[in-house]
Amino acid sequence: MADQGPYTGTVLRVNLTDGSIEREPLDTRLARDYIGGRGYTSRMQYDLIPVNVDPLGPENVLLFAPGALTGTSAPSAARFVVAGRSPLTGIFGDANSGGYFGPMLKRAGYSLLIITGQSPRPVYLRIDDDQVELRDAQHLWGKEVHEATDIINQTEGKGFRVATIGPAGENLVRIAGVMADKEHAAGRTGLGAVMGSKKLKAIAVRTRRSFPYYDEAAFKALAGELRTIEDNDRRALQFRKVGTLGTLIEHHSALGGLNTRNYQTGVFEGKEKIDHEALVEGGYLVRTIGCYQCTLKCDRLTRVTEGEYAGTEVGGPEYNTAASLGSSLGIDYLPAILKGNDLANRYGLDTLDLGGVIAFAMELYQRGLLSKEEADGLELEWGNHRAALELMRRIAFREGAFADLLANGVRAAAEEIGRGAERYAVHVKGMTPCALDARAVKVYNFRFAVSPRGADHLRISAPGGYTLDQLPMPEAAAKLAYWQSVVTIPDLMGVCKFAYTYYTETPEKSLYRTLEVIPKLYHAATGFELTGDELMHTATRINDLERAHNNRLGLTAKDDTLPPRFTEDPMPEGPAKGKVYDILEPFKKAWYTVQGWNPETGIPRRERLESLGLGDVADDLEKHGIDIS
């Protein structure tokens, strides 16, 4: 990779303990070796966060990073990453979001925000190009996301984009996220609680700058080519019409893997009442909306005009939210799902883990392991949307002993309740999976077991991944590992995976966009030369770095597991009837072998780490007593 030297951007360091703010140029070596976005935050997590840190203590570091192409005119160049030690899982943590906040931050010149310490009082960070300061936020503390965002905009004037936490983050709810532009969630791993622990209510950023292209004409020509490809891609055009709700709920139902009543089954009898057609035919859909530079526009602005939830207006739901707050809870009343989506956004809660912990509570109630009295008076029967919505509110405010317990996430709640409750806690490493049941698609959902964040559908994915079950295990593992690196690339560049890797007619079209066009865009944007092979090598480096991060914390092959619901309970009905997840241990060995990790421990070997330019990480692991032979 040849260094052409022009644009990398600035690192902004904010120490909340003493209020100091410092700027420094981004190290060119970091820019070349880690690209941007998740690359920067994963490296900084490894370098800056102590092994034994309290995720909610002042020693944890909170990181924000747009991608290398965020803020450009490339299609869907809107993404940014929030990262830090996860208070939900206790391990590697990050979350990704779209909207307009990330592009504003990048165009203001900031490629990485490093936030340390803990403020003695609530503050928000105001970034107006080169003018950066901490401002008092005591008047914002306790406000919901929408209200806090509106107050900041009214106070600061036009043009600011805001990322903020709601009451859930302030109350250190471990499933709290960071909300950008009111409706876009960096939801996973509980980083809203980290922000709340630091008494940082919000970050508001405004810029008058455009992206400083190395070769603007070449960049715009390439961006135009991508738009032309997308406009003629049958699958992309269909995705524009129906979004994730219309695409995935149908497909996952056809596979028999739609999360229903805490994954007790993969078939939801009320599916037609909560899908995209119901959204349209019920008159809830106002219009499609999208993030910065988005042409797919998978977001939906929806509104409820009648009934007890009349007046609800929300940017959603996307598929996983509809399933987590719908079929997962046995709820087939779409206005209640929209209301739940709205409450989650206003309180600042991750909808996947929120649905997961409520579904867990409902199953305990079903099985007689939880009484109405123990649930603080709530009747947690399947489909009881009023009780579910009330429980969401209580979780956000940690109101009552039961909600306070659930606010710590499903693993912690199950351990505290005991009495066999752990058997019904569906999670990996403390995090709830997406709505696709692992029994329905085994190889593809092996990703839940080995992701560094916990049960995760975004770290490892593949177009046509549902067909991997048909391949011999070594071949399937190799393909999955290859696509793991491919789908990492959008996280580094700050572009949307939907547009670049998921919703294309063929895998070949995805690879053309990702491995041929993106390197050209990157060069035109930054001046750094980069080949597709080098980009894949960088992506693999970052995946192994994240693995090493958790290995340093003591995680090994024994932690790469799946919940008993998937491994012990046969699917009771539908297209996946009789299936149980029975390939975990042999597939782990195949996966570790393909990756160049120790097949017994799942730890990357020294040779593997050095081949990826991570020799310093190998040395550090050995210093911590980790066997990398």
Low-confidence stretches: 1-6
Strand content: 5-15%
Category from helices, strands and their pairing: alpha+beta
Q: What is the molecular shape? A: globular
Q: What strand line-up does the widest sheet have?
A: 2-1-6-3-4-5
Q: What value does the average pLDDT take?
A: 95
**Topology, number of strands:** 15
Backbone CA Rg: 23 Å
Percent helix among the residues? 40-55%
**Main beta sheet, described?**
6 strands, mixed
Account of the protein in words:
Helix content is 41%, strand content 12%. Helix 2 (38-48) runs parallel beside helix 21 and helix 20 (507-526) packs across helix 21 (532-552). The chain has 629 residues and is α+β, with helices and mostly antiparallel strands. The chain contains 25 helices and 15 strands. The protein has a six-stranded mixed beta sheet with strand order 2-1-6-3-4-5, with helices on both faces. A six-stranded mixed beta sheet has the order 8-7-12-9-10-11. Strands 13-14-15 form a three-stranded antiparallel beta sheet. Mean pLDDT is 95; it is low at 1-6. It has helices at residues 28-34, 38-48, 101-107, 145-156, 167-170, 191-197, 216-231, 234-255, 276-281, 319-324, 334-347, 351-366, 385-397, 401-406, 410-417, 447-450, 473-486, 489-493, 497-502, 507-526, 532-552, 564-567, 584-595, 606-611, 615-623; strands spanning 10-15, 20-25, 62-66, 80-83, 94-97, 110-116, 123-128, 131-136, 161-164, 178-180, 184-186, 200-206, 285-289, 299-303, 313-315.
Task: List the SSEs and their pairings.
Blueprint: E1 10-15, E2 20-25, H1 28-34, H2 38-48, E3 62-66, E4 80-83, E5 94-97, H3 101-107, E6 110-116, E7 123-128, E8 131-136, H4 145-156, E9 161-164, H5 167-170, E10 178-180, E11 184-186, H6 191-197, E12 200-206, H7 216-231, H8 234-255, H9 276-281, E13 285-289, E14 299-303, E15 313-315, H10 319-324, H11 334-347, H12 351-366, H13 385-397, H14 401-406, H15 410-417, H16 447-450, H17 473-486, H18 489-493, H19 497-502, H20 507-526, H21 532-552, H22 564-567, H23 584-595, H24 606-611, H25 615-623
Parallel strand pairs: 1-6, 7-12
Antiparallel strand pairs: 1-2, 3-4, 3-6, 4-5, 7-8, 9-10, 9-12, 10-11, 13-14, 14-15
